[in-house]
Amino acid sequence: MIRLFDTHEVRPTRELEGLWEFQPVSRQGEIPEAMNYRLPVPGCWENHPELGTYQGVGLYLKKIQTSRRTNLRLEFKGVSHTADVYIDGVHAAHHHNAYTSFDAVIRGVEPGEHEIRLYADNSFGEHSALHIANDYYTYGGPIRPIVLEEIGDVYIERVAFFPECEDGVWQGRWQATVRNLGNETCETSLLLGLDGLSSFRETITIEANSSVTLERTELYREAEAWNPGRPVLYTLRAELSNEKERCDDWIDRIGFRRIDTEDGKLRVNEQEIMLRGVNRHEDHALAGAAFSFPDLMRDIQLIADLGCNTVRTSHYPNDERFLDLCDEFGLMVWEENHARGLSEEQMRSPNFAWQSEQVTREMVEQHGNHASIVIWAILNECASDTVYGREIYASELALIRKLDPTRPRTFASHNRERDICLDLPDIVSFNIYPGWYTDEDPGELMREARGWADRLGGAGKPMILSEFGADGYYGFRSANRVKGSEERQSDILDENLRAYLAEEAPLTGVLIWQFCDCRVSESTGWLMSRGGTHNVKGLVDVYRRPKLAYETVKKHFRSQQSKRPADGIPVPARTDVTG
Ligand code: ADA
After folding, report:
1. Is the pLDDT at 442 greater than 50, yes or no?
2. Which of 178, 231, 496, 531 is the most exposed place for a label (fewest CB within 10 A)?
3. Which CATH architecture has domain 277-571?
4. Does domain 154-257 fall into CATH 2.60.40.10?
5. CATH class for the domain made up of 13-149
6. pLDDT digits (tens, 9 = 90+) for 479-493
7. Which atom of ligand 1 lies nearest, measured to the CA of 414?
8. pTM of the model
9. Cα of 506 from ligand 1 centre, angstroms
10. Is 167 exposed, middle or buried (0-12, 13-18, 19+ CB in 10 A)?
């Protein structure tokens, strides 16, 4: 399943799901003597009993048939973590980072059989600055769908839509990019519209081997807003036509909403909002990082059942189908680029700056149309306390502002009073663990955090506690409520939430670490503190079995829901799911 809706009606499109041949190999490009395995795609190789801990390069191979001479576009929605693609033996794409998509376009493919070879590498080393041994697992393989499309020489490459509100009237800024792969200049007619509202047509001329981006702002007086409590979505349709017929199209969904952070408040459509949510790793005991649609839906239902109105995609851009579900059900999203806990030294790795900038750009360009994303974030717990770190924070936040001026930006800091970047984002966010890593009082620490923000450049900005939580081993019960037990985890979250959800708390959001337990990299050093190579701060375990803390959080969040209904109640909560 590619998305929750058809992305093309004109362009022939199919998902290359099913069984692919597979073989571990020693390096990218190697052609093995035999392909001894067959694995499901999308999927990760860890699900095969012999490959549960394999870290290295894996070759996926698929033969496809085409029935006419055409151009092919192959889109890989997520390959973990470094991919190299060969089509009929010719290198067609290289991409680093598991959590954003990339494509390969091949011109003039003859009818008949063609071979796709996908090399996926999940090993750590100099080539991978973002994927390192970490507090989550880097699975191997095509964890998200692979899509095969037939395109003409002129095709729609991307359509971005930015909703804006001027004097109470909705308008939309369009940015549509059309590419000409051909060797001659061409003229084409482009139709852009929103179903149920209006559309317009423009004629564009595109030189050979280049692209043109059309920009235009349109008024939508009749548009209904997307609100967390009433998530109205519109189908966006772009179509290219020549003299005779429609020759290409692009379909997406958008919502009209305005987000602002004036006076230290976060507002969606002028309504002040308190974010209540969870941090979520895309990880499941049975699926690894390759979620089936029902698994994604199950997470949405559980998050809604908890009384959350927000989810943070810690620590990387999420599966588009998950974002589609958030759009559809009114769950607000903090989406962040891919990084966790990188020191200055790690940020100075020669591959860090470009890989990090690339994932930031891809995240915003690929996911910008999702109405549910209300915050962009970067670089969780990296070196925001160093001069070099500040350069990177500043440049990535500026890049986001350039690509999308409509959403606030933040980063989750663990650097407390040492942080030197709090003047840069629109919202300040802190990860703190009172009751777990420290013995501090949650209420006092929250007020101290406000003080750090106020003194260090973040005065007047909304503040979010982006992580707090405690270990809780599923099924480990303790009469003495010792650390690591379900009881203690529940107590710690209870104490934290009492302080943070109090009327006078100076907060715009609380995000619990974390929704579900997750597998972590096998390593030495601090990762040895992760019993069973899992981070067990989940409210549910890797199989989604709720721990005691689940009910505790639900009690707090649901009572907020009734006190502050305008903050939004995601739709699945209305058809109560867990009873
Ligand atoms: C950090 C980090 C998380 C996780 C958490 C923990 O704040 O951002 O990824 O590692 O701590 O469990 O300690």
Report:
1. yes
2. 531
3. Alpha-Beta Barrel (3.20)
4. yes
5. mainly beta
6. 999 999 999 999 999
7. 7
8. 0.97
9. 23
10. exposed
